[in-house]
Amino acid sequence: MFDVGFPELIAIAVISLLVIGPDKLPETIRSLALWFGRFKRSFNDLRSEIEKEIGADEIKQQLHNESVLKEINQSRQAIEQTRADVNNLISEATAEPIPASTNPADTVQDNHDRSTNQ
Question: Shortest CA distance to 25 belongs to which of 13, 36, 37?
Fold first, then answer.
């Protein structure tokens, strides 16, 4: 984390022993350890709170996505129903008998005769 090696730790220990003194050094180390523990706990609490907030945002996004998917499925069902209705209308229209007075072959022949006379 801080990239401190063993020689640096020895130097810090010797300097702190000279500055603080052998009587107060254990007490100072305990105080530093307590402060470091408090800092670490508060940092972990902050991190977990942020993760909870991010998790809540993800849940909200997932619920929104589910509602969008539900709307898409409803639209798809409506389209399928419309498609079935159109197919039924087409099949009904093609199934109706052609009146005897309107023979398709005669209509094609009449159209051909009209185009050649012009």
Answer: 13
DSSP 8-class letter at 34: H
Extract the tokens encoding 103. 């023979």
**Which amino acid appears at position 114 of this protein?**
R
Domain parsing of the chain, residue ranges: 6-87
The Cα 80–Cα 115 span in angstroms is: 43
- 25 and 16 Cβ atoms separated by less than 8 Å: yes
**Is the model's pLDDT at 3 over the cut of 60?**
yes
What's the mean pLDDT in 23-31? 90
Nearest-5° angle of CA 85, CA 90, CA 95?
125
Give per-residue pLDDT as tens, 53-92.
877 777 778 888 888 899 999 999 999 999 999 999 988 8
Q: How large is the greatest C-alpha to C-alpha distance in the chain, in angstroms?
A: 127
**Considering the entire predicted model, what is its pTM?**
0.40
43 CB-near residues (< 8 Å, 6+ apart) = none
Q: CB of 31 within 8 A of CB of 20?
A: no
